[in-house]
Design goal:
alpha/beta, six-stranded mixed β-sheet, 14 strands, 33% helix, globular
Length: 396
C-alpha cells in the first residue's frame, strides 16, 4: 500500500530530570519505551531532539546572583557600568540584571528602541512616525521617552520593562540611569566601561566600541565563562542562553553537548542496529505575528548535534515543477514525472529555479524550530522529541 504520511514529530514524555542523572541513558530508555508502548519502529535517519533545559539540569549547570555579582565586580571594579542592548525578558535577563546590579556601583542602562533585538517592543513603530522620532539618530533620556510615548506595557506580559528593569537595579541601592539609543557609541558619552548584552549582534557591538575608545568591555558571554565558587558556567556562551530558575539563580545554557548526542546515537545503534540523528535544541527561530517577537533568545538553536544534521535542505519546489516543467501532465503521469525528477535531482540546487521558495535555513535550525513548537515551553512534559520521515521526499 502507498505510504500516506510524511514527517511526524512526537513529543515523548520523560521523567523529571535532576542534577547528576545520566541524560543520555534517560533519553535512550525513553525512546525504547515509547517505541514499545506506542507501537512505532525505529528507522535509520530518524531524529531525536532533546531540549537544552533538561541537559543543563542533568549537568547541574546553575549559578547564583552572588556568582554573577562577584564576576562583575572582578571585571569592572568600581566603574560605572554601561549595560547596553539587553533583551526585554523576565525569564532571560531579569535575574542576570539582579546579579549585575549586586556587583555594580552605578549603572547606565541603554535600551534599543522601538524593540530589542528579538522583537519585544517598547513602543510601536507607528508611534515613532507619529511623534517624528528617528530611532537611528535620536538619543532619548527616560524623561524624553515618557514625554513622547508615556507608559507602555508589553503586549503579552503586561510589563513596563523600563520601570521593571530600573526597579531591579534600585533594589540594591544602585543608581540607574536609563537612556534609549540604537548606536553603540552613545554609551561612551556616559561611561567607558561597558557590558554588551545583545545576543546575535554582540560581535558587531563589541567591534564598534573597541574602535571608539572603550576602556573595559565584556559581553554576557564573558560573564560566568569560568566557574566561580562552585557555580555553573559556560565557557563559550557565559550567561547567554540562561533562564530564570529562581529569583536568585539562573540555569545556564548546557555545555559540552557533543559527547551526549554521540553517546545517544551510539547506544541506539548498538541496541537496535539503526543509525538515528541526535541534537540538543534550545529556542527555535520563528516570528510571532502578533507580539512581533523573533523567538530566538538563545545564542544558537543547537549547541550539539550529530554529523547527519549538518548542512541545509536540498529540496525542489513541487508546485514549480507542476506549474512549469510538467504543466501538460496530470494524475499518475504527473506524479511519476515529478518522482523521477526528484530521484535524479542534483546534489546542490542552490540558485536553481526549481528550488526557489524552499526554506534556506540550516537543518538544525529548522528541526530545532519544529522540536521547540512540538515540546512547547510549559507543562506538556515532553522534553524529548522523536521525528520520523523528515528526510523523506515525494519520490520515496
Amino acid at each position: 500500500m502507498e505510504r500516506m504520511i510524511g514527517t511526524v514529530a512526537m513529543g515523548l514524555r520523560a521523567p523529571i530530570i535532576n542534577e547528576g542523572e545520566n541524560i543520555a541513558k534517560i533519553t535512550v530508555d525513553t525512546i525504547l519505551k515509547a517505541s514499545k508502548t506506542e507501537g512505532f519502529s525505529i528507522h535509520d535517519k530518524d531524529i531525536v531532539a532533546i531540549t537544552e533545559s533538561v541537559v543543563a539540569r542533568a549537568q547541574g549547570n546553575y549559578a547564583s546572583i552572588d556568582a554573577i555579582a562577584k564576576d562583575i565586580t572582578d571585571k569592572f571594579g568600581d566603574d560605572t557600568i554601561g549595560i547596553i542592548f539587553p533583551i526585554l525578558s523576565r525569564n532571560r535577563f531579569a535575574v542576570c540584571l539582579r546579579g549585575i546590579a549586586k556587583g555594580a556601583k552605578k549603572i547606565i542602562l541603554m535600551l534599543s528602541y522601538p524593540s530589542d533585538e528579538v522583537g519585544n517592543h517598547l513602543v510601536d513603530i507607528d508611534l515613532l512616525d507619529e511623534k517624528g522620532v528617528n530611532p537611528w539618530t535620536d538619543v532619548l533620556t527616560e524623561e524624553q521617552f515618557r514625554d513622547y510615548f508615556g507608559y507602555i506595557k508589553h503586549t503579552f506580559t503586561g510589563i513596563d520593562y523600563i520601570d521593571y528593569y530600573k526597579s531591579l537595579v534600585e533594589e540594591y541601592g544602585i543608581e540607574c540611569e536609563v537612556i534609549f539609543s540604537n548606536n553603540p557609541k552613545t554609551i561612551l558619552k556616559y561611561t567607558k566601561s561597558v557590558l554588551v548584552c545583545d545576543v546575535h549582534t554582540r560581535l558587531r557591538t563589541k567591534r564598534i566600541l573597541k574602535a571608539n575608545g572603550v576602556d573595559r568591555i565584556y559581553g554576557l558571554d564573558d560573564i560566568l565563562s569560568t566557574p566561580i565558587d562552585g557555580n555553573g558556567y559556560n565557557e563559550e556562551y557565559g550567561l547567554l542562553g540562561s533562564n530564570k530558575a529562581t529569583e536568585e539563580t539562573v540555569k545556564l545554557f548546557p555545555r559540552n553537548c557533543q559527547p551526549i548526542v554521540d553517546e545517544i546515537q551510539g547506544s541506539i545503534k548498538e541496541l537496535t542496529g539503526k543509525t538515528i540523528e541526535v541534537m540538543v535544541y534550545g529556542d527555535g527561530a520563528f516570528k510571532d505575528p502578533v507580539g512581533k517577537i523573533w523567538e530566538l533568545a538563545d545564542p544558537v538553536v543547537s549547541p550539539g548535534y550529530t554529523k547527519g544534521l549538518e548542512g541545509t535542505p536540498n529540496e525542489i519546489k513541487l508546485k514549480y515543477l507542476a506549474d512549469n516543467n510538467f504543466s501538460d501532465l496530470k494524475g499518475e503521469e504527473l506524479k511519476k514525472a515529478i518522482s523521477e525528477y526528484i530521484k535524479n535531482k542534483r546534489e546542490d540546487l542552490v540558485g536553481s529555479m526549481e528550488s526557489q521558495g524552499t526554506t534556506p535555513r540550516r537543518l538544525t535550525d529548522l528541526i530545532g524550530s519544529l522540536s521547540d513548537l512540538t515540546s512547547g515551553s510549559g507543562d506538556k512534559g515532553t522534553p524529548i522529541v522523536y521525528i520520523q520521515g523528515y528526510f523523506d521526499n515525494y519520490a520515496k
